[in-house]
Design a protein that fits this description.
Elements (H helix, E strand, L loop, with lengths): L10 H12 L4 E4 L2 E4 L9 E8 L16 E7 L5 H11 L5 E6 L2 H16 L4 E6 L20 H13 L4 H13 L1 E9 L17 E4 L10 E4 L3 H13 L13 E8 L5 H17 L3 E8 L8 E9 L2 H8 L2 E2 L4 E2 L10 H4 L12 H33 L6 H21 L4 H16 L1 H18 L7 H19 L9 H16 L4 H18 L23 H22 L1
Parallel strand pairs: 3-4, 3-5, 5-6, 10-11
Antiparallel strand pairs: 1-2, 2-4, 7-8, 7-12, 8-9, 10-12, 13-14
Helix pairs in contact: 2-3, 3-13, 4-5, 6-7, 10-11, 10-12, 10-17, 11-12, 11-13, 12-13, 13-14, 14-15, 15-16, 15-17, 16-17
């Protein structure tokens, strides 16, 4: 369990505040995360890492000289939003471009991808790289689907060392890709973790059993066995990793490797050293030279009991970057020339929010849009537990919690900008950013895309009409399918969004009022949501347990159907009145 916290909802923000206070000589807080508090070379590439909180030292603990220039930090186990990533990248930019690198999870891919597009639109050169080191999460033929776990550190380290060496953005990206291509990890878990305020673990492993290949958020592994002796675990680690050599390496004999034996939160250093004793023996017997091994906690899962082994197969360039000095709050290597501290004025991050002008009609419509958002919040709060139950059948069970965080954040922001006189379009766009910020994860990113599309379509000049609303919904559908890569039949919210959008647009084109068209489309959405029970998931965390989800509808599809039906009921009531 988690013993020390105040309000569970404030845990992530309070841990950042405390972390910065304890490490002010190395980091400073900015909206969305932390960046270096020391001066970097003008014109150099900035390496930005990030992901959900709860994995310390990843990600904030790796910010400092020789490693990351900034870390975007989401809520517990939830990816940071595009806005958070954008803020961190802008604050850390040195004028040489930005590399965004992170573990390969759907929410992170979406948010970092959106942030990359925004940075490029601002004229900042930007590239992205998702780390894919976890060999248990997909076959080598689908290596691009693998998760990023403790191998994050090797990729981050190489990328940052390349940047410190003065390489341009193309060179830093090339080095990071090379490190990712040559990094492999395999992990095990003995028990799950319990988040602040929770009465039960987020995920569980049967007592006395070990899950091979379980992910750092409780994603399913490949099988379970009895907990072995330390030497046996070492042998499992080494056998698995030597069984898959990176492309271009014909034989392990004579190779050099960087090594990370990583504790996931509750397996302590003494235990890890016992395991490493046998790992070192096995690698020596295989005639593999270990270069500067790291044994400890580097990418954790809150208080999860488990461990992982990572090998990065070195060449001369990778070894140079691996050995390069670093000085961060949680990771130190060699000796650095201490960089100059930023001045007091430079440490202050100014954030100003201005609202575009809006017509009186649009301001009046904004109040009605706010009422719709508040009704959506009531629906989600009422059904959050049930949405979590549905999601837990084959996922991690956090969909209800994430949706609740997102819609409450959107409502809070909408109230704020409505009081300042925002138009309907601006209100929805600002609410979209807040939803993505607070919810994180895949659903947060996709709902951010959806509300932004609708807000952009209705604008701030006129009262929203049926045609503009239908156009906004169509753009939301197109945006979600573009960023999320899902299609009809994949058992996602897209299975509801497509028939809803198509029905709405067809009805509006045929001359129906917004209310009539919406109600017809909402019924199509409801039918489509229930029909997802007969589908097998082809994307996301539920994919490895596809058969288990058969007979249960998709949680994202159900929550979308709930929302559009809630809006439909309000529109019907307004029309009747």
């Amino acid at each position: 369990m988690t013993y020390l916290f105040n309000q569970p909802s404030a845990f992530a923000s309070e841990l950042i505040e405390g972390f910065v206070a304890a490490n002010a000589d190395k980091v400073r807080q900015v909206p969305g995360g932390v960046v270096r508090s020391t001066r970097s070379k003008t014109g150099s590439v900035a390496v930005i890492v990030g992901g959900g909180s709860g994995h310390y030292p990843a990600f904030a603990g790796l910010v400092g000289q020789g490693l990351a220039h900034g870390a975007a930090m989401g809520n517990l186990f939830a990816s940071p939003s595009a806005q958070q990533i954008y803020n961190v990248a802008r604050a850390a930019d040195n004028g040489g471009g930005v590399l965004l690198t992170f573990g390969n999870y759907a929410g992170d891919v979406l948010h970092f991808g959106q942030a990359c597009e925004r940075l490029r639109a601002d004229g900042i050169a930007c590239e992205i790289l998702a780390v894919t080191d976890d060999i248990s999460s997909a076959k080598v033929e689908e290596i691009e689907k693998r998760r990023g776990v403790a191998g994050d550190l090797t990729v981050f380290k190489v990328a940052a060392a390349a940047a410190e060496a003065g390489q341009d953005l193309a060179g830093v990206l090339k080095a990071a890709r090379h490190a990712n291509d040559r990094t492999r990890s395999f992990g095990v878990a003995f028990s799950g973790c319990t988040l602040p305020g929770a009465t039960h673990p987020l995920f569980e492993v049967e007592k006395g059993r070990m899950a091979l290949g379980m992910g750092i958020h409780g994603e399913p592994g490949i099988k379970e066995t009895d907990v072995p002796r330390a030497d046996e675990l070492a042998e499992i680690f080494v056998e698995r990793l030597l069984g898959e050599l990176p492309a271009g390496i014909a034989s392990a004999e004579g190779q050099r490797v960087a090594l990370i034996l990583n504790g996931l939160g509750s397996v302590k250093y003494e235990e890890l050293f016992v395991v490493y004793r046998r790992v070192a023996q096995l690698l020596d017997a295989a005639k593999i030279q270990v270069v500067e091994p790291d044994v400890g906690e580097f990418v954790t899962s809150f208080n999860m009991a488990g461990a992982s082994l990572t090998l990065m197969w070195l060449d001369d360039e990778l070894e140079t970057f691996w050995r390069a000095p670093a000085n961060t709050p949680a990771y130190r290597k060699g000796s650095v020339i201490v960089a100059e501290q930023l001045s007091a004025a430079e440490l202050v991050e100014e954030v100003q929010e201005t609202l575009p002008p809006a017509s009186s009609e649009s301001k009046e419509s904004a109040q009605r849009v706010l009422q719709l958002l508040e009704a959506m919040a009531n629906t989600i709060q009422t059904n959050a537990e049930e949405l979590g139950r549905i999601d837990a059948v084959a996922g991690d069970g956090d969909h209800g919690i994430g949706m609740e965080r997102g819609i409450l954040g959107a409502v809070e922001k909408a109230r704020d900008v409505a009081a300042q006189g925002a138009g309907a379009g601006t209100l929805l766009c600002r609410a979209a950013d807040a939803w993505a910020d607070k919810a994180g994860g895949t659903s947060g990113a996709l709902w951010g895309v959806a509300l932004t599309a609708v807000g952009t379509a209705i604008g701030d000049e006129q009262k929203p009409d049926a045609q503009r609303v239908a156009t906004g919904i169509r753009h939301a559908k197109e945006g979600i399918m573009h960023f999320g890569k899902a299609k009809v039949g994949d058992k996602t919210m897209v299975d509801v969004l497509v028939p809803f959008s198509d029905t709405l647009n067809e009805a509006v084109a045929a001359g129906s009022s917004l209310t009539d068209a919406w109600l017809k489309a909402a019924q199509a959405a409801d039918d489509a949501a229930q029909a997802t029970a007969h589908l097998l998931p082809k994307m996301g965390r539920a994919r490895p347990l596809a058969e288990k989800s058969l007979g249960t509808p998709d949680a994202g599809a159900i929550s979308l159907a709930m929302i559009v039906n809630t809006i439909g009921s309000l529109l019907k009531d307004k029309t009747a009145a």
